[in-house]
Amino acid sequence: MITSVRSTVLQTVMLCCIALGISACDATVELVKAPFDATTAVSNGTTQGASELTQPTKEFTSSTTPGSRVGSEDLIRAKQRLHTFAAYNFNNLQHDIAQGRGEYLNSLLTLAKIPHANHPQALHDLQQRYVTLYPGDQSPAELTQRLVDVVWLAPLGTHTE
Questions:
Q1: 134-153: burial string, b at 16+ Cβ within 10 Å, e else
Q2: Domain residues for 39?
Q3: What average pLDDT does the segment 138-146 reach?
Q4: 124 and 88, same structural domain?
Q5: Predicted pLDDT of residue 60
């Protein structure tokens, strides 16, 4: 009988400890989480406040000057894609330009928005300029920039900035 009472008391104490532990965990979680919630609320308010300050300027410039900037955003992005492609495929492009043909060179001309009908002339022109495009005393970054500039500008390209 005493063993049964001890067992019941022990079980009751264990259940109380578990219940107390679970409720203490919630309080701990709330204490730990509170600073993060507060920081998030403040930063969201700051971001929203900054957006409210800059939104009128964005609306004004986009509504009064669409397309009147130096080079449209589409052309700027196209030139950035062209430069990224040329830098990533530096060796392949150098090889294709030396031969006057190749899939990397065709892709470069397409990214430069050169009409397909003008590709043969552009391929010939780039091959003729190989020596000036790839002198031995410049870094790949400089050579890539030179190639992009040559391909992007008229008469090879159909656009201007």
A1: beeeeeeeebbebbbebbbe
A2: 1-66
A3: 90
A4: yes
A5: 45
Structure-block tokens of residue 19: 């219940």
How is residue 145 written in tokens?
């920039």
Phi, psi for residue 7 in degrees, rounded to 5? -65, -40
pLDDT recorded at residue 27: 55
pLDDT for 62: 47
> What stretches of the chain show up as alpha helix (H) in DSSP?
2-64, 73-88, 90-99, 103-111, 119-128, 130-133, 140-152
Q: Does 81 lie in the same domain as 55?
A: no
* Residue-wise pLDDT tens digits, 85-134: 999 999 999 999 999 999 999 999 988 888 889 899 999 999 999 998 88
Q: Which two tokens stand for residue 85?
A: 């492609």
Indicate the helix (H) or strand (E) that contains 100.
none
**Identity of the residue numbered 49:** G
Is the residue at 159 inside a domain? Answer: no
User: Cα(98)–Cα(129) distance, rounded to whole angstroms?
Assistant: 9
Within this chain, do residues 33 and 85 fall inside the same structural domain, yes or no? Answer: no
Q: How confident is the model at residue 138 (pLDDT cuts 50, 70, 90)?
A: confident
Claim to verify: residue 87 and residue 116 sit in the same structural domain: yes
pLDDT of residue 48: 58
Number of domains in the chain: 2
Distance between CA 151 and CA 59 in Å, rounded?
35
